[in-house]
Each structure stands twice: as C-alpha cells, then as structure tokens.
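To the team - ribulose-1,5-diphosphate complex, inputs and output below.
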Amino acid sequence: MAERVRVTAEQIKRLEVQGARSIAIAAIKAIETLAEQTKAKKKASFIDELKEAQALLSASRETEPLMRNALHWIITQAQESKTEKIDELCKTVASNTRQFLADLESSRERTAEIGAKRILDGDVILTHCHSSTVTRLFAKAKKAGKNFKVICTETRPAFQGRITAKEMVDLGIETTFIVDSAARSFMANVNIVLVGADAISSEGNVINKIGTSTIAVVANEAQKPFYVVSELLKFDPETLFGEHEKIEQRKAEEVWMEGPKNLRIQNPAFDVTPNNYIHGIICEEGVIAPQSIIEVIHRRYPWVLKHS
Ligand code: RUB
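Output:
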C-alpha cells in the first residue's frame, strides 16, 4: 500500500488534519496517489489495494461519513468500469478524484453563499469548534460588506476554536473568544448560532464536535436560531438502515495529560444534536429542514442511499 495512505491515516488520527472536509480531501488525495503508484498487474488486485486503503482511512476517524461516501464513490467507479487495463483504471480513479474534489469545492461555495444571506448587518454570531464551511460563509458575508461580530468557543479538549479565532482575526472580523462553559452567559447577545457537521443521520440529527448539543440547548432556551452549515454528503447512509452513528472516543491524555491513576476519563469527540433543536441545515441545495434530509439526498445524491 502507498506510504501516503498510511501517513494520511496517521495525520488524520493525530488531528494534524482536522474537520470533516479536510479529512475527506486528504483521504481522496491519498487514494489518488495510491492509484498513481500502484504495482498491481490485475484489476482484482488493484481493487483489493484500493479497498485495503479505504478500510485503513475510514478507520482513522470513525465519525466521518463524508470521507466514507467519497471513497466509496471513487472506488465504485473503478470497480464498475468495463476495462481490465490497469492504466485505464488509474485514469478512472484520477478523473473521478478530480471531479469529486471540484464538486466538493462548488458545494462549499454554494453553501457559503446561501448561508451568508442569513447574516444581517449588526449580527452577533456564535460558532463552536472549527468548521471550514462555516468560516467560508463568514468570509463571503464579510466580502459582501456585512458588518457582524463573531463569538467563538475555545472547544476543549483540542482547542480547535483557536483555528477559527485566528481565521476570523485574519479576515478582519471583530471576534470574541470564550471558554466553552461561557456559552450560556453570552447567548443573550447572540442573534444566530452557526456550526458545522461531521455527520447527519437519516432523521436529520446532527453529529458535530463535543459541546455542540449543549450550545443548541442553550440557544433553544434563549430562542435564538441554531443552524448547521454542511455539505449534504455528510449524510450517513448507515443510519437509514438502523445503525447509530459511531462516536469516536479519543485518548484520556487529550483531556488531562498526567491525571491521577485510577481516574476514569472519558473523551468523546462528538455529540448528537437532535433535529428539533435545529432551525435548518444550510447546504448546497438551500436551507432545508433537518427532517427532509432523506428526500433531498434522494434527489441530489441517490447513489449514497445505495451503499452502507
Ligand atoms: C471539527 C468539527 C467541524 C466539522 C465540520 O472537529 O467538528 O465542525 O468537522 O468541519 P475536529 P468542515 O477538529 O475534531 O475534526 O465544515 O470543515 O467540514
């Protein structure tokens, strides 16, 4: 297997690559490199090699359906291709990789464009963790001349909120940085909450960085709209067939480097925000009700429903 696949899986595990989109992009590029460097002589062994890489990458962070959907789509195109020739199969992987990345980019642009319209002059927006889709939305709104402020949480335990805060400062957006547990104290001054997503279930529940659901409850109490900004391909088809989205459990050391022995530390990376706390999902197809996710996926990406 290409070294690039192993290295990418490790980088994803260690959070050197973070955020659902970046994780999917890194995995797609690793598969592309594998196809470029393959020594397989027969189609069957080439497909086996791709599938072995798919399994390793998918296991690197288990709550990442965008990565799984992307790898599934690219590998299926090679598998279903009529050719047996390795060089042609490699070209199939390369062209589908390019296509997938281009589609992902235009989905984010469209999502950000739609979402930017939800920001009004003078708004204070609260966000959690680091979502490249949310920060792109902020960049678009700023470029459109909107005047708004951002509050971002530090996002324990790995402080991904700092990435958001730096990006906001670089964009020249007035930003306030708070600890996660201060979200309720600041909610009265917030106009709208925007967060990203790692996974969307068939009921329209959203899985995102740990603490997201607490913010949703606090927003609900304060009657502030809570929106999820996400590409549709974060939908997990396995949830349609009864599976629960697996929540990644991370190492205790991320929470407390040298905690007392015999102390039980738990470190789930994500939590589930139920659909009734979500005003809408802002995606490439518009602002949709979370409960309509299956219908929208059916219309836009029917192939996703055919695999699990
Ligand atoms: C990142 C996180 C982000 C989503 C969406 O968690 O929860 O909100 O992944 O990001 P982590 P994007 O840092 O643990 O990966 O919009 O960039 O896909």
